[in-house]
Each structure stands twice: as structure tokens, then as C-alpha cells.
Design brief:
This protein is about 50% helix and about 15% strand. Bound molecules: octanoyl-coenzyme A (CO8). Octanoyl-coenzyme A (CO8) binds next to helix 2, helix 3 and strand 6.
């Protein structure tokens, strides 16, 4: 069905694998379109409770496709950039947890893809970076905005302006990834986390994501108000009655996503 990505669902966990290993999984327009398509489907698929994004081979994603960008005029470049933004914004906005299992190079658009996910687990072999200024451009899939939000303005400027590549431990230290795993354990760790989150009330998990992502860019008063409204949505769910009832009855909850 897809030519540049693989998608499979196993016990409620969807795994999206970028599959262009010969080009280090670089994001061209075709890959971006397939990612947009698969996440649009995931958004409406009740079977998928959590998603893992990873890359085939030794790269997670080594950036936007430089060969393709080299051919584009400014209008074409803008279209590609906007497509990238659409994909990243979709991943960020779907009300399901998305975990990046960063298996190798996460550079440029690849680092931006990882940052659009909710949580990043990195292999000890992973390398993060925003090399764009060395190519005469700047990050264009949201990196100038998401990187400072994750690691702070100073560190984001350091990474973007120097184009320096950093390893997984440094990425963990600065808050660019939330966990580091041995390469052979990476997918198992991502699946373990995905299953843990998937075992919780889906509406609550999705609502928490929405509250954090949207409230983060508001002033505190508006953000508090936003939490009140999103909290009320979760509080109105059947899963709230089930979750609290199960606790009081000392049994495991059976959430129904209602
Ligand atoms: N685009 C296209 N092809 C790539 C890319 C890429 N980003 N990265 C690697 N490849 C290709 C190489 O050209 C090579 O192809 P071939 O075998 O045909 O020569 C193949 O993948 C293997 O790569 P290497 O031989 O270079 O492998 P190494 O192990 O020596 O090095 C690296 C791996 C370090 C990942 C190296 O390939 C590299 O530096 N890649 C480029 C990284 C980069 O600069 N990424 C940022 C791109 S810019 C970007 O992402 C902007 C996002 C916003 C775009 C807005 C749209 C307009």
C-alpha cells in the first residue's frame, strides 16, 4: 500500500517505519504524503491506541531530501515546507500518544519529526542535529519553534547555529529525548511505554496531550482555563466512572474509549 513507509498494528500499538534506508530515510514529498495519509487514518482508527515512529536501517530520518530540495524553486520549496508542517502538526495534534524510537541519525527534518512526537526514546547510537545552516537554509519543518520549546532558547540557538551533531546522552541531558536505550532494546522499550500508556483511559490520555500542547503556548490564565475545559471533557467520560469505580472495587479498569 505504501512505498516509502511501513505500517503495522500489533495489540493496539501502531508502528510507522520510514523505509528509505538507501537514502537514510530522507523525507521527500512522497514520504511526507504517505506520512500524512497514515496519520490521518491512525487518527480515526479506534484499534490504534498508541503509535511508534522509527526508521529502517541506520537512520531514523537524516532530514528532508537534499537531492529533491536542490531541484526546487522557492515556490516548490515552500510547498514542500508546508507539507512538512502539515505532517508535523498532524502528529502533534492527534489525540493519541506518539513515541519516536530514534534508532540512528535524526537530523534536520528527522530531528523535527522526532520533536513533533510526544515522547522520544533514543538508541545509544542515535545522533541528533539541525545541520540546515550548513546547506544554506534554516530548519523548515518546525525546528526553530519546537527545539527552543524543548531545550530552551540558548541551547536551540547553539544547535541550530553551529549545526553540531550530538549523541543520545547529550540529547537526554538537554531534554531532547526522554530516555536512552541500548540499540537492541530500543523497540522493546518503546513498545513497553506504548503499552503502558495504551492501558490507561484513551480519552484522558488524548485530552492530557491536547491540554499540554495547547496550553503551553498560552498565558497562564488562558492555559488554566483551557485545562478546566479539557478536564471537564475527561470528567464527563464513561471511562472516568469506570476508572474510579475500578479503583474503589480494587479491580483492573476496563476502558472503552467513551
Ligand atoms: N537527503 C537525501 N539523501 C540523503 C540524505 C538527505 N537528507 N542523507 C543521506 N542521504 C543519502 C546520501 O546522499 C547517500 O546516497 P548515495 O548512497 O546515493 O550516495 C546515502 O543516503 C547514504 O548516505 P552517506 O553515504 O552520506 O552515509 P554516511 O553514513 O557517510 O553519513 C549522514 C550519514 C551523516 C546522515 C550523512 O548522510 C548526512 O550528513 N546526511 C545529510 C544530513 C542533513 O544535512 N540533513 C538535513 C537536511 S535539510 C532539512 O532536513 C531541512 C528540513 C526543512 C525542509 C524544508 C523543505 C523545503
Amino acid at each position: 500500500m505504501y512505498e516509502n513507509i511501513k505500517f503495522e498494528v500489533n495489540e493496539g500499538i501502531g508502528t510507522v517505519t520510514i523505509n528509505r534506508p538507501k537514502a537514510m530515510n530522507a523525507l521527500n514529498m512522497d514520504v511526507l504524503s504517505e506520512l500524512f495519509d497514515v496519520f490521518t487514518k491512525i487518527e480515526c482508527d479506534d484499534e490504534v491506541k498508541a503509535v511508534i515512529v522509527t526508521g529502517e536501517g541506520k537512520a531514523f530520518v537524516a532530514g528532508a531530501d537534499i537531492a529533491q530540495m536542490h531541484q526546487l524553486d522557492p515556490i516548490g520549496g515552500r510547498k514542500m515546507m508546508m507539507m512538512g508542517h502539515k505532517v508535523m502538526n498532524l502528529i502533534e495534534s492527534i489525540e493519541k500518544p506518539v513515541i519516536a524510537a530514534v534508532n540512528g541519525f535524526a537530523l534536520g527534518g528527522g530531528c523535527e519529526l522526532a520533536m513533533a512526537c510526544d515522547i522520544r526514546i533514543a538508541s545509544e547510537k542515535a545522533k541528533f542535529g539541525q545541520p540546515e545552516v550548513g546547506l544554506g537554509i534554516i530548519p523548515g519543518f518546525g525546528g526553530t519553534q519546537r527545539l527552543p520549546r524543548l531545550v530552551g532558547k540558548g541551547m536551540a540557538k547553539y544547535l541550530i547555529m553551529s549545526a553540531e551533531m550530538i549523541g543520545a546522552e547529550e540529547a537526554y541531558r538537554i531534554g531532547l529525548c526522554e530516555k536512552v536505550a541500548a540499540p537492541e532494546d530500543l523497540i522493546a522499550e518503546a513498545e513497553k511505554l506504548a503499552k503502558t500508556i495504551a492501558s490507561k483511559a484513551p480519552i484522558a490520555v488524548g485530552t492530557a496531550k491536547t491540554a499540554i500542547n495547547n496550553g503551553y503556548d498560552m498565558d497562564m490564565k488562558s492555559a488554566s482555563k483551557f485545562e478546566i475545559e479539557t478536564f471537564t471533557a475527561a470528567f464527563s467520560s464513561e471511562d472516568k466512572t469506570e476508572g474510579m469505580g475500578a479503583f474503589l472495587e480494587k479491580r483492573a479498569p476496563e476502558f472503552k474509549n467513551r
